[in-house]
Amino acid sequence: MELKKSIAEEIDNNIFMKYLQDLSWYKPDYLNYDWLKNESPHYIFNFQKNSLAEKNIKEIIELKEKHYLKILSFLELDNNRKIDYYIYSSIQKKILLIGDDSPGNAIWEELENNNPKKFEIHVVYNEKCKFIGEHEDAHLLSLPWGLSIYLFCEGLAQYVENSFMGEDLNAAAKKLLQGNKLYPLEWLCANSNWENVEPTAIYPQVGSFIKYLIESYGKENFKKLYQNTSRKKEIAENLLAIEKTYQKNVNQLEKEWLNFIK
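Structure (tokenized):
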């Protein structure tokens, strides 16, 4: 039986590279906020007084601990660092305290030798939006695999969650295909093209595609691809890594995937 590698032990092709996370919107006001706290085996939860999160914190802890074990089991990794998990009652509160208007973020800030400077997740949790799925946790816990392009990073995180807003990934992608709302995968290999994508389309699309790659060609091939693609490489290099891994180019793989979900 192969031993699992820890975050400190995992070595990939990018080990000597230093990555800075784009946090142009970031502000540190949340660090001085008067949070209620509850610590579990693998998380330190921070939540607001009189919030829905405070009411449901036991359920949240139980769910997140299950997510944590599920993700590490899939990645075949161990981790000895607790995740600082911040739960906001609204988007407005999240904007006020950290500066971002999305329902969830994984914050690592700076990554060098696979050691992230921060290990934080920030999510919104209220009656209308309970953004506490596996997606953001997968971003943090997969850092030992390296930092691939968005197509594979976001695809992996959505695959681990295995749904989008409660809908099966392949079913959601099929609807997008029928509505002519899918993005060309080769175009998505350029991170700069993600600036104006539609979240409700891009996440189920890339999640479904990565699900197809993993379940058709195996996890080890995907891990190899993930570790051999990088945000610091030219697009042509990343496209070549895809072809070397699967003996097919991204357009051929896209055609296979589309035929599968039809």
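The longest helix spans residues 57-75. The first strand starts at residue 5 and ends at 6.
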